Amino acid sequence: DSGVTQTPKHLITATGQRVTLRCSPRSGDLSVYWYQQSLDQGLQFLIQYYNGEERAKGNILERFSAQQFPDLHSELNLSSLELGDSALYFCASSPSYRPGNTEAFFGQGTRLTVV
Amino acid sequence: DAKTTQPNSMESNEEEPVHLPCNHSTISGTDYIHWYRQLPSQGPEYVIHGLTSNVNNRMASLAIAEDRKSSTLILHRATLRDAAVYYCIPADSGNTGKLIFGQGTTLQVKP
Description:
In chain A, 0% of the residues lie in helices and 52% in strands. Chain A is built from no helices and eleven strands. Chain B is mostly beta strands.
């Protein structure tokens, strides 16, 4: 158990809909990362928040947004969903915003299926 | 972002040592070298990291070349549970907080 909790574990929704994925980081971790893993793209970095502020951005679509709340949990919002958004979405947390000398802990992921 | 090159796949026999190589010739002087692994149907899991000198922990050892352009993850006695995709990641120790995963090496462990 990494200590990172993601909900829900599975989500099935229709094209055009909007969903929210939730992540609770490990106790004390201030940094949260979001990743997308699809079969043909591997693990893609989406976005990082540190103590409520956006810290780094990757290949995140404009239809996607994220935020980190004062209690440090984070939400990833996916809107106008397309079939190609079907993927595993992982959240990770770490104590620092600099991943260099610290390890990141990953949740078990949310499997999103868009039909 | 530093680029990495890893073999697509490797095989090992159970209880034998495994050496997983990674080339990261464009690594910057302040990037740590991280290794993560992903078991089937699970999230990535931290294995080990280092900067310049070799590192050991309960899971593995990390051997870093003197010029830092390559590193090798060493599993001393592979078990069936070690079958996973192993990722080598130069981790930015600067202001950008990204961990960028490449394609990794799929390790098969045969009984």
